[in-house]
Amino acid sequence: MSHAHVGVMLMTYGSPATLDDIPAYIKNVYGGREPDEEVLTEFRRRYALIGGSPLIRITQEQAQALEAELNTTGDGTTFHVTAGMRFSPPFIADMVPETAAGAQTLVGIIMSPQYSPIIMNGYIRTLEQAFAELHRDDIQLKISRDWHLQSSFLDAVSDRLQQALAKLPENVRATTPVLLTAHSMPKRVIENEPDYINHLKETAAEIARRAGLSPDRWMFCYQSAGHTPEEWLKPDFADVMPELKAAGQTNVLIAPVQFLADHLEILYDIEVGAREQAEEHGIKFARIESLNTHPLFIKALASVVRETMAR
What we know:
Blueprint: E1 5-12, H1 22-29, H2 37-50, H3 55-70, E2 78-85, H4 92-100, E3 105-110, H5 117-132, E4 140-143, H6 151-167, E5 178-183, H7 187-190, H8 194-210, E6 218-223, H9 237-246, E7 251-256, H10 264-267, H11 269-280, E8 284-287, H12 295-310
Parallel strand pairs: 1-2, 1-3, 3-4, 5-6, 5-7, 7-8
Helix pairs in contact: 3-12, 4-5, 6-8, 6-12
């Protein structure tokens, strides 16, 4: 089948547009269950503290940059790139007709380099259902899977890491420990999918190698664990701070290996929560700049689109 025109959708979690949208957003995340008022109060506090999440805006900017990148090849194929959210407007299903208009191929890109069939199934199911409702037999649907070792993606994070290290005071630049983080998960979810955690750790190790970090200089840990009684994956970066203090460290640099844009898990969980945890132990805190529209990252997304089309 010809790929003369391709529609591409970047799919991510979503976020409330305003504080008033938080109840509906959390209800969507909870699968239709009404959240407790205590939960809503805490989320309102966090979003208010960071001035709201820029995730949707940034994902749309990534889509615009990716469209420009894809359309520079001059091979006769044209691309239209949109952004669709799983839990908030603009919803994935609502964006499918526009994304697929005039296209021979529709490509869905899950905005997570590491792929988990269980965790990512909601994106796939939502896109496949909306695609079926087009009732078109002249278009192919292709959805990305794992791309955790995509070279330009790794180079982009490594570049952000090296930029952050260069900003540290010269007397600690060569010794500051680096925490490469990923979103924690309930242990029960991951016990059936060890490959997902292995992919996170492989990503971290390759980023550290490309950034020139010696093995004793960095460690992989988790962040953003939920407030539920079940067991979550460890170590959390909160567990690491007292260990760094005990080892005589005075600085720390945090570098997420999974998050591709600024959002609540960056701007609150790291910028506010991790900073407070570090400073409580007398440790100076820094984090890398998020990928957002880093040119290398946009090139990585373009490669993921073409690899997904070819599969």
